[in-house]
Structures are given as C-alpha cells and as structure tokens.
C-alpha cells in the first residue's frame, strides 16, 4: 500500500474540508472554496469519501482537495494530510516512492523514434487514416516489430503497438509507464462538443479524423476506467456511446449506459458504424458516410440535451410545436414564478389558503377555472392552531382535501429549502402549486458586496429556475411599501425592482384606505393580460369574492355619484310633469336644493354653474338638455326633457345598463 492509498483509507473527506476552513451545513453542503458563489453548491459524499461542486465542476478525494486548496502537487498534499492527521508513513521506502515517479524517458524516446518511421508503413492508409491524421496525432511505426504505434496522448507517456502481420498488441510495462489510461482521455474535459466513446484507438482516430472528439476504452474492460474518471469529474460534453456492433460491445454498452444513468451523466447511444463492426471499418469503406453519420449523431445528442441557453434559428423556432403555458388558474396564474404583494393584515393569507383549497378540489377561484392538482403551502407566519382554525372556517368544517400539504417551518433559500421542496415533489408528484407565505421568511444571507437589486434578482432567479425546471408554479407572498403610488401600484412592491423583474406573474392586493370593504387585485405578467379586479372579503364566509372589474366598479361609483348629486335630484324633480321644462338661475337652483333636502349649499352660485357644466354631458345621456341665456345681469339655466314619439322620454345612460 503506497502513501496515497494509506491516506485515503485513514481519513474522511468531511473532516478534511472542515479542517481546511470549509464549514458544512446539516446537508453536508457549503460555499465552494474554488469559485465565487452565494448559494452552496459544494458538497461531500461520506459514502464515497469524495467532494464535488455542482457549480464549477471540481471533484475528487481528500488529497485532490488539499492539492487544489493549497496549490501543491498531490504527493505534497498526501504528505501534509499524513502529518496533520497523524498517519505513519515511515513504512514507505524508496521502492514504494519509485511508483510515484513519472514515465521513464525511454518510453518518450522510443515513441519519438517510431514517429520518425511513420512513413515506412502503408497500414495507416489501409485503415483509412490520412497523412494529416498520422502527423497530427503523432502515430508511429516500430520497424523491428513491424507494428504501428499509437501514443495515448501528446505527452508520449503511454502507447499501444499493433503488429501489422500478426495482429498482436504490445503495451509498456506497468512498472515503466503506470496503469493504462484511456486513449485521448483528456477530451472528456477539454471540449463542450459531443464526445464519442469507442473501443479501439483506431476507431477513436477515425472519428477524430472526421472532426469530432473521441475517447477509446482500449477494450470493453476500460469501462471501469471511464466510470472512475467520470465520478471524479463530470465530462464537459455529451457522451455518445458507439461501441463495436458485436455481442461483447452490445453488452458493454448496456453496462456503461446503466452506470452513466446512475451518475446522471449526459449521454446517448448512437450507432455510427451502421452494419459494420466498428467506425474504423466504415471509414475504410465509405469515409463520407461515416462523417455524415457522425455529424447527424452530434446533432441528435445536442438536441436531446438542448436547453434555453442554446441558440435556435428563427426558422427552426417557427417550425417547432411549443405547447402553451400550463395554467394553475386559467388566465391569471400559469406555472413559473409568481408573487402576490399586499399590506400586512389585508387578508392575503386567507386568499392563499382559499386558492390552495380551490386548486386541490378543482373548484373556481375568484370566478376563474382551476386545474386540479396537489398543493404545498408554507404558512410560515402561522401556528398550527391558527392554520387549522382558518382552514376549518373556509371549509365550513367539511373534510379537508387530502392533496393539500401544509407546513409552518422552512429552511432559507441557501439553507436547503429547494432540496426540501424537491423531496416533497418526489414524494407527491402531483404537486404543481407551491405557495411560500412569506418571501422574507426564506431569504438567504445578504452579501455586502451586492447591491439590493443584484441580491433580489439573484435570489428570485434561483427560485424561478427551480419552478421552471420542475414545471410548477412557485407563488411567493410579499409585502407592499407603506408609500403609495397612484400611477402604478406595481411600484409599491417592497424591495428593489429585481423582485418584480424576475417574476413571471405579479399580483397586487391594495386598498385606497385600510378601512375600505373592497380591494383591488391587480394582475400583470409575461403570459397574462393585465387585469384589475375589485374583490371583497366576506367576513361571514371567510372568502374573497369578486365584485367586478375595476372598470365596472368605477362606472358604478360614477353613476352613484351622479344619481346622488343634489343638482340632478332637483332637476329631475322639476321635469317630472309637463311641460317637462324648468328655468332658473344658480341661486334659484340652490334654493330648490335647500327646499328639497333641507341642506344649505356650501358652494357659490358661480361654482354651482361650473358643476352644472361638468355634468352637462351626463344629463344629456340621461335625456335632459341643458342650455343657458342671459336675462339682464343673470344667467338663466334651461333644462328640458327630450320627448320621443308617443310622448315617451328618451333616456340613454352614459354608464350602461345596471343589469
């Protein structure tokens, strides 16, 4: 056992990372020490004794961790860990240490000599490889053995030699060159293009000659090497499995596919050799067909894992069949990130619980159709008693829906909240609406280096990405500023514009005065039409109900103000009997108002004239014509009721029909 194996056996990765300043939370996660981040993406696996960062891709064992943290080579890192954790390494003599030495220079010299003799064989041409490929990948020829020589990398540290006559293989001794690596294994991490996984180096070279990236397993036994590499560091490109079209190749491909599924590595299985044994055989017979198949395979693999970060042509987008948004509540609440904001103690929590019950039972919410699904409600400002009492009042003590999941506690965004929601969705896959009441309860740690906008937008973007990736609606409950904005209620959201900017749908529940019975529910968003609803909380049934749209409510308000206007009342009274006409000065009208109502007018005759002028159009649509003429120093107001055929009075209301 060498020093590396001894250190890995004796120490635990969690102890090492914490010893070197990385504080793990209860879920074994932390902020990554290798790159800047605000939300923990660094984690350790106690089972596999390794670390991994899902943000920057760094992964490895304890020795790798210390090597990267301190910027030292692996041997120095192993020695330091042995010293820090008191591991006895005296048993490692010079013979053991010799295993740590690099490949002997004789291998490099041997390969250089073979490369010089590459033109002394026509075997490469026979296998379909061009002169440019031979030069580019430093292929060589061993004159004594009469064998082609294929270096595994440009470092000339390992090779495979193949006899042209006998078809036998040669490889350097383990004590000289170490364990056999993957052929062109570095391609796993140095390209974002698809990477073909094949069996032989000749097949890999055939694919590389066609312009794609390839890695050879050097036989089906190389599967374990590939899996080990993939566990330590996730490939940057999609893996395309194109193993030989024989029984061992098919079995190996199935085994590798299973392993990659477990590791959640992006891959696809595509046969580019068609009916030939392997890609090299197809290259020998039809190089253009192989190239065409490789291009098609790359396109298929990319399409399989295409994300919104990848561009798409306008032509392809136009042809693509894209389903419309999935609605939780038709027309007002689609999947994605939503937020509802209201002043404190307005009744927004009652509205959210009402929404949950409506969606869980598939019943209407505020006169809008819902799509029945499970709901997860985080009532973070409630006790269980208050939550139960509120629910029973809404249900009138009927049986509660079994698909409504309730909780009163939650972690923060950077403390495991999303992982917990994900576990709930995994357990209850029908959850499509998650409500968090309130946003402030799950906010993460602030960063002094960030502006308020940057911090708000970053956190909201994390929540939006989660909602989009899980195809759910994540609805946040938030507060409004105390300062009102009559021009745009959406400017009243507490916090920076980053909160609204990241959301798909925004609701504002507001009142002109706290004591008002009705409130306005304003809705806007990316996939909804802007809408203002007048709603009212029924204190008997504990339900929010729709009174009408804001436009309808405003019309009712104007009509009532018109009908209650004492001037209108007096004029209508005077026009009840023939000749359906009345004349008088402003002073006369003021006297008539007093005689009719007993109320003394608080305005002047001049202002009363202006008020009559302001309602002149409304009087016209009410069937009353108004005109004026002078009589000496006075202005006489003349009011006439319009008479249609048959003595009927024409009445056309500006405000529409009450019905």
Radius of gyration: 39 Å
**What share of residues are in beta strands?**
15-25%
Q: Which strand order spans the largest sheet, edge to edge or round the barrel?
A: 17-16-18-19-15-20-21-22-23
Relevant CATH superfamily of the largest domain: P-loop containing nucleotide triphosphate hydrolases
CATH class of the largest domain: Alpha Beta
Given the structure, what is the number of helices? 26
Mean pLDDT: 88
What is the annotated CATH architecture of the largest domain?
Answer: 3-Layer(aba) Sandwich
Which key terms come to mind for this protein?
659 residues, alpha/beta, DNA Primase, Chain A, DNA primase DNAg catalytic core, N-terminal domain, Dna Topoisomerase Vi A Subunit, Chain: A, domain 2, 5 domains, nine-stranded mixed beta sheet, four-stranded antiparallel beta sheet, 26 helices, 38% helix, disordered C terminus
Structure description:
There is one protein chain. By secondary structure, this protein is an alpha/beta fold. It folds into 5 domains: 3-100, DNA Primase, Chain A (Alpha-Beta Complex), CATH 3.90.580.10; 105-177, DNA primase, catalytic core, N-terminal domain (DNA primase DNAg catalytic core, N-terminal domain), CATH 3.90.980.10; 187-304, Dna Topoisomerase Vi A Subunit, Chain: A, domain 2 (3-Layer(aba) Sandwich), CATH 3.40.1360.10; 327-549, Rossmann fold (3-Layer(aba) Sandwich), CATH 3.40.50.300; 565-647, Phenylalanyl-tRNA Synthetase, Chain B, domain 1, CATH 3.30.56. The protein is built from 26 helices and 26 strands. The protein has a 9-stranded mixed β-sheet with strand order 17-16-18-19-15-20-21-22-23, with helices on both faces. Strands 1-2-3-4 form a 4-stranded antiparallel β-sheet, covered by helices on one side. Strand 13 (327-329) and strand 14 (333-334) form a beta hairpin. Helix 11 (201-209) crosses helix 14 (279-285) and helix 23 packs across helix 24 (586-597). The longest helix has 19 residues, at 452-470. Residues 91-104 and 645-659 have low confidence and may be disordered.
């Amino acid at each position: 056992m060498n020093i590396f194996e001894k250190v890995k056996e004796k120490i635990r990765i969690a102890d090492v990372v914490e010893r070197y300043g990385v504080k793990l939370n209860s879920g074994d996660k932390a902020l990554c020490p290798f790159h800047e981040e605000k939300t923990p993406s660094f984690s350790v696996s106690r089972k596999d004794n390794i670390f991994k960062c899902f943000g920057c891709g760094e992964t490895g064992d304890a020795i790798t961790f210390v090597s990267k943290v301190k910027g030292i080579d692996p041997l120095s890192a192993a020695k330091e860990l042995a010293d820090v954790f008191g591991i006895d390494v005296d048993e490692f003599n010079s013979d053991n240490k010799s295993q740590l030495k690099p490949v002997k220079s004789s291998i490099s010299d041997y390969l250089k000599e073979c490369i010089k003799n590459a033109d002394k064989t026509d075997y490469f041409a026979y296998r379909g490889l061009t002169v440019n490929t031979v030069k580019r990948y430093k292929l060589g020829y061993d004159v004594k053995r009469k064998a082609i020589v294929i270096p595994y990398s440009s470092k000339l540290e390992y090779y495979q030699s193949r006899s042209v006559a006998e078809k036998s293989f040669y490889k350097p001794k383990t004590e000289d060159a170490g364990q056999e690596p993957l052929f062109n294994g570095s391609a796993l991490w140095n390209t974002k293009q698809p990477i073909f996984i094949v069996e032989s180096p000749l097949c890999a070279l055939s694919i590389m000659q066609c312009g794609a990236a390839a890695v050879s397993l050097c036989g089906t036994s190389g599967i374990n090497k590939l899996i080990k590499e993939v566990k330590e560091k996730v490939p940057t490109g999609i893996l395309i499995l194109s193993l030989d079209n024989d029984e061992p190749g098919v079995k190996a491909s199935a085994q590798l596919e299973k392993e990659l599924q477990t590791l959640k590595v992006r891959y696809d299985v595509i046969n580019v050799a068609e009916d030939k044994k392997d890609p090299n055989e197809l290259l020998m017979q039809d190089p253009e067909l192989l190239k065409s198949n490789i291009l098609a395979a790359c396109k298929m693999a990319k399409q399989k894992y295409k994300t919104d970060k990848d561009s798409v042509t306008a032509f392809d987008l136009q042809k693509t069949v894209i389903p419309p948004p999935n609605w939780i509540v038709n027309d007002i609440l689609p999947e994605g990130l939503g937020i509802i904001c209201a002043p404190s103690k307005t009744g927004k929590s009652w509205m959210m619980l009402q929404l949950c019950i409506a969606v869980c039972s598939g019943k209407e919410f505020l006169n809008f159709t819902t799509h029945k699904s499970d709901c997860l409600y985080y009532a973070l400002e409630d006790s269980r008693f208050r939550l139960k009492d509120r629910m029973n009042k809404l249900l009138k003590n009927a049986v509660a829906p079994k698909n409504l999941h309730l909780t009163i506690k939650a972690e923060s965004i950077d403390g495991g909240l999303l992982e917990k929601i994900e576990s709930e969705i995994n357990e209850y896959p029908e959850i499509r609406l998650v409500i968090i009441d309130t946003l402030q309860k799950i906010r993460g740690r602030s960063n002094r280096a960030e502006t308020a906008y940057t911090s708000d937008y970053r956190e909201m973007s994390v929540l939006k990405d989660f909602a989009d990736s899980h195809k759910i609606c994540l609805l946040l409950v938030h507060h409004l500023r105390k300062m009102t904005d009559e021009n745009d209620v959406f400017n009243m959201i507490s916090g920076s514009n980053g909160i609204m900017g990241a959301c798909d749908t925004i609701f504002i529940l507001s009142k002109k005065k706290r004591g008002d019975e009705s409130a306005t529910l304003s809705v806007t968003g990316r996939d909804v039409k802007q809408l203002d609803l007048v709603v009212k909380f029924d204190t008997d049934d504990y339900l929010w109900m729709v009174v009408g749209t804001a436009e309808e409510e405003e019309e009712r308000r104007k009509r009532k103000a018109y009908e209650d206007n004492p001037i209108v009342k007096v004029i209508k009274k005077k026009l009840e009997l023939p000749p359906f006409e009345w004349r008088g000065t402003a002073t006369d009208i003021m006297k008539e108002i007093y005689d009719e109502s007993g109320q003394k007018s608080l305005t002047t005759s001049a202002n009363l004239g202006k008020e009559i002028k302001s309602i002149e159009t409304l009087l016209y649509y009410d069937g009353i014509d108004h005109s004026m003429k002078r009589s000496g120093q006075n202005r006489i107001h003349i009011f006439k009721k319009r008479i249609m055929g048959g003595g009927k009075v024409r009445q056309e209301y500006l405000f529409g029909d009450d019905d």
